Amino acid sequence: MTAPKKLFIKTYGCQMNVYDSERMTEVLGGQGYVETSSPDDADMILLNTCHIREKAAEKVYSELGRFRKLKADKPDLTIGVAGCVAQAEGAEIMRRQPLVDLVVGPQSYHRLPELEAKARTGQKVIDTDFPEEDKFETLKSRPRAARGPTAFLTVQEGCDKFCAFCVVPYTRGTEVSRPVDRILAEARDLVDRGVREITLLGQNVNAYHGAGPDGDCSLAGLIAGLDKVDGLERIRYTTSHPNDMQDDLIAAHGECAKLMPYLHLPVQSGSNRILKRMNRSHTAESYLRLIERIRAARPDILISGDFITGFPEETDADFQATMDLIEEVKYGTAYSFKYSTRPGTPAAERPQVPEDVSSERLQRLQALITRQQHAVQDAMVGREVGVLFEKPGRQPGQMVGKSDHLHAVHVSDPTAQPGQIARVRILSSGTNSLAGKLID
Ligand code: 5AD
Ligand code: SF4
Fold first, then answer.
1. Of 103, 133, 191, 208, which has the fewest CB atoms closer than 10 Å, so is most exposed?
2. What is the C-alpha R_g of the chain?
């Protein structure tokens, strides 16, 4: 028997890349590859990349440079770049870094078996098509490998919103939703493999409108279908756009017990002038009204968001409006970034805010979010929460999981098992996690 070939895959960026990396690993499993955690003994190295900000893209090139010696020692080693940098830069990657043998975009990685075989013959291979055939249909024959009690499931890809700062509509293409029956089949398959929580993924997941038994189905309709899957205990979804937060989805937060009380709803800025310049087509007020309606449906829902500081032409007053909005919403957590110029997007052409100004605003914004996060965490102390345990913690006898509100929760209890959903009394709140004890 020949020894299996080894695949080292490194994932950058969003959760959809995590999902894609898992699927690429499964596809290459069919070619005799097993995953390795070190590039040193790999026969193939794949970097699944992110193009959302300049820093993320540049990291890929510095990482690739580190493989020079490995490739010199092992000329058979195949080095591939997948994901959004692959899509955006294509052949340019090989010009900048000749070590790269293979470039594959997010819509064509189901073709990896052929692409890998071609690369093995010494050819340079590039596939950044948006193919006619459906990637997911081809992938269907490769079983999902469950890696624990939680899983991601891509239900929608691409974006038609064209926010002025964002590369996603160019790298991931236009919005496409997968049909309901395929998603339910994949979910059942995951549950059969021990998964108890599924996070539905999409760049614009709440714009989901996949084909269902009675015509187009909304995300709320899809969630209602998943609610009936026996053994599936928890449902989440990310990332959403405020303008696609329909009434049925808001209602689902009040009605569907499996739908967890956590919502990632990016607003980006609290200034209507900047929101307009960002092409967001909502206002700070409409966002705040929306949050109110969501909280009316599910009062304890934890809200998270995304923010950009230093978007072109952002003034102190614009930034203050963002801080005011944050004060009003009271976020449980949030992701925030300095504006990064992305070539080819409309905002790249506009007057830029000096770096030190964006940095200072980002620091102030993050300090406010951290205060809010700690206030929300501290308020959990003494409360009873549901926790799905995922894996042992760093201390002996410790188990770590996620609460319904997506807080990391530690318990020290030898009876706690991965995959178990338990009631836990929260005893204390740390920097980024909670600690508690099992309730009998
Ligand atoms: N610069 C900074 N942040 C960006 N994001 C998207 N594009 C950029 C950019 N050019 C942020 C947005 C988005 C999140 C995924 O990344 O906040 O919601
Ligand atoms: Fe990018 Fe805006 Fe689409 Fe989100 S909604 S992926 S920020 S263009």
1. 133
2. 22
Query: How many Å apart are CA 85 and CA 100, to the nearest integer?
Result: 13
Q: Which ligand is nearest to the CA of 306?
A: 1
Predicted local distance difference test score (pLDDT) of residue 333: 98
Q: 390-417 pLDDT, tens per residue? A: 999 988 889 999 999 999 999 999 999 9
Ligand closest to Cα of 174 equals: 2
Return the CATH number of 384-438, one of 3.40.50.980, 2.40.50.140, 1.25.40.10, 3.60.120.10: 2.40.50.140
Which residue do the tokens 């624990």 mark?
A: 148
Q: List pLDDT tens digits, range 33-90.
A: 999 999 999 999 999 999 999 998 899 999 999 999 999 999 999 999 999 999 999 9
Cβ-contact 163, 280 below 8 angstroms: yes
In 53-111 the beta strands, taken as DSSP E runs, fall at: 78-82, 102-104
Amino acid (1-letter code) at residue 60: V
Give the per-residue pLDDT at 1. 58
Distance CA 178, CA 246 (A): 19
Residue 125 C-beta-side C-alpha neighbours within 13 Å? 25
CB of 115 closer than 8 Å to CB of 82: no
Nearest to 27 by CA among 200, 195, 143: 143
Residue nearest to atom 17 of ligand 1 (CA): 306
**What's the pLDDT tens digit per position in 171-212?**
999 999 999 999 999 999 999 999 999 999 999 999 999 999
Q: What is the dihedral of CA 134, 140, 143, 147, to 10 degrees?
A: 50
Domain 135-140+147-380 matching CATH 3.80.30.20: the answer reads: yes
Closest to 305 (Cα-Cα) out of 243, 360, 242: 242
Contact criterion met (CB below 8 Å) for 264 and 238: yes
Ligand 1 binding pocket includes 165 (Cβ within 6 Å): yes
Beta partners for 264? 304
Which residues on adjacent β-strands are paired with residue 152?
A: 199
Residue nearest to atom 18 of ligand 1 (CA): 306
Q: Specify the amino acid at residue 11.
A: T
CATH 3.40.50.12160 given to domain 5-127:
yes
**Per-domain boundaries in the chain:** 5-127, 135-140+147-380, 384-438
Q: What is the pLDDT of residues 211-255, one digit of tens each?
A: 999 999 999 999 999 999 999 999 999 999 999 999 999 999 999
pTM: 0.95
C-alpha 395/C-alpha 397 separation (Å) is: 6
From the CA of 202, how far away is ligand 1's center (Å)? 15
The ligand 2 atom nearest the CA atom of 241: 5
